[in-house]
Amino acid sequence: MKRSILFDTETTGFDPDMGDRIIEIAALELIDDLPTGEAYHVLIHPERDIPAEATKVHGFRIEDLEGKPVFSEVADGFLEFIGDSPMIAHNARFDFKFVNAELKACGREPLDYASRAIDTVEMARKKYPGLPASLDALCRRFGIDLSQRGTHNALLDCKLLAEVYVELMGGRQRGLGLAGPSRSRSMTDGINALANRKPRKMAPPTAEELQAHEAFVSTIKDAVWLRE
């Protein structure tokens, strides 16, 4: 069985080198690319303020995190949950950079990006060149329900990304064929939840996606013309 961890973070800003910190981590365990039901989720006090611009994205104010642990208090639990498994994230460089900054700050070894990271943005761009690769765009493409997604939320985003990842890896039927009697109850529940979903119909492309595709095709044509 192949174990991997799908994870997401919410932060106070865009750059840990400028003092931004993690305020939420969510992670889901996958076995053979399907969720088992095992999850890790924690809210973290960033030991600094949360800018209003960041609050608009994820909805957290510093008052919401009063009394929550700081990263150094949750680091060991997070590392125990992820083990040495590959780490899947949407725009993985962003999340790895923040996690590694936090790990270094509390004296832990950073995660090795080259050997562990799986970036679903890169996967989507290879599979659908020229089309938007945001989580929202991929959910619409695969017919995944976005009704609960208002502000960004690491746990909800992980659940949505788990469904997107299954589709990027070849669809749920591929994963269901991997199930066997030795799976844990949580794995079985995860498979049954996926199996009971109605087959998805691919959503028609949005105007944004069509415009991006036309721009991509135009770029290719220009490149061919220049070679001629």
Automatic annotation (TrEMBL):
Required co-factors: Mg(2+); Mn(2+)
GO cellular component terms, semicolon-separated: cytosol
InterPro entries: DnaQ (IPR006054), DnaQ_proteo (IPR006309), Ribonucl_H (IPR013520), RNaseH-like_sf (IPR012337), RNaseH_sf (IPR036397)
Keywords noted in UniProt: DNA replication, DNA-directed DNA polymerase, Exonuclease, Hydrolase, Magnesium, Manganese, Metal-binding, Nuclease, Nucleotidyltransferase, Transferase
Gene Ontology MF, one: metal ion binding
Reactions the enzyme catalyzes: DNA(n) + a 2'-deoxyribonucleoside 5'-triphosphate = DNA(n+1) + diphosphate
UniProt superkingdom: Bacteria
Residues in the signal sequence: none
One Pfam family hit: RNase_T
Biological processes annotated in GO: DNA replication proofreading
The record's free-text note on cofactor binding: Binds 2 divalent metal cations. Magnesium or manganese.
Residue span, Exonuclease domain: 3-174
Binding residue positions for substrate: 8, 10, 53, 58, 157
Residue numbers binding a divalent metal cation: 8, 10, 157
EC number annotated for this UniProt entry: 2.7.7.7
SUPFAM superfamilies in alphabetical order: Ribonuclease H-like (SSF53098)
Residues forming the catalytic site: 152
Its job: DNA polymerase III is a complex, multichain enzyme responsible for most of the replicative synthesis in bacteria. The epsilon subunit contain the editing function and is a proofreading 3'-5' exonuclease.
Quaternary organization: DNA polymerase III contains a core (composed of alpha, epsilon and theta chains) that associates with a tau subunit. This core dimerizes to form the POLIII' complex. PolIII' associates with the gamma complex (composed of gamma, delta, delta', psi and chi chains) and with the beta chain to form the complete DNA polymerase III complex.
Protein name as annotated: DNA polymerase III subunit epsilon
Species this chain originates from: Gluconobacter potus
